[in-house]
């Protein structure tokens, strides 16, 4: 891992300040949110990370499913196993706590009119904004 030089750190901090100033001056903000928002909280849908192995252990242990999307799009031989996996996935998503990245975004944009365009299927944005402010393409 390469550490940032002092000049790179100053450049990053300057760019961050410009962004914060633009947000402060804006009447409204459009947020484009994708899987990185959730991955930053440890909810990686593309791999069998430790969180997945713990939460989905019956399917991971039996089928070596490599993440939620693998399980979602897998060609299951047994429909009951598929629907068991999917029901557990839906339950898990519904009960996920609001991740820090989403809490931080809500705090940052607290006094702004916000509209979110997201491909996230974990409904985290729905836990901080009403459905009328969110588009799921």
Produce a short descriptive summary.
The protein is mostly helical and 137 residues long. It is built from seven helices and three strands, in the order αβααααααββ. It has a three-stranded parallel sheet.
Keywords:
single chain; 137 residues; mainly alpha; 3-stranded parallel sheet; 7 helices; DHS-like_NAD/FAD-binding_dom; Deacetylase sirtuin-type domain-containing protein
Number of strands: 3
What percent of residues are in strands? 5-15%
Regarding quaternary structure, how should these chains be classified? single chain
Gyration radius over CA: 19 Å
Distance between the termini: 36 Å
Question: In words, what does this structure look like?
Answer:
With 137 residues, the protein is mainly α. The chain folds into two domains: 28-43 and 98-137, no CATH class; 44-95, no CATH class. Helices cover 51% and strands 10% of the residues. The protein contains seven helices and three strands.
Task: Please write out the topology.
Elements: H1 6-25, E1 28-33, H2 35-39, H3 50-55, H4 57-63, H5 68-73, H6 79-95, H7 100-108, E2 113-118, E3 134-135
Parallel strand pairs: 1-2, 2-3
């Amino acid at each position: 891992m390469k550490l940032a030089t002092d000049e790179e750190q100053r450049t990053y901090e300057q760019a961050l300040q410009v962004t914060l100033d633009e947000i402060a001056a804006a009447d409204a903000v459009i947020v484009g949110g994708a899987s990185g928002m959730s991955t930053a909280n440890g909810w990686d849908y593309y791999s069998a990370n430790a969180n997945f192995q713990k939460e989905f252990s019956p399917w991971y242990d039996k089928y070596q499913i490599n993440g939620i999307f693998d399980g979602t799009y897998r060609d299951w031989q047994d429909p009951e196993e598929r629907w068991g996996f999917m029901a557990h996935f839906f339950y898990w998503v519904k009960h996920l706590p609001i991740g820090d990245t989403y809490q931080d975004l809500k705090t940052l944009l607290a006094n702004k009119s916000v509209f979110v365009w997201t491909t996230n299927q974990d409904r985290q944005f729905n836990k901080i904004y009403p459905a009328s402010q969110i588009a799921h393409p």
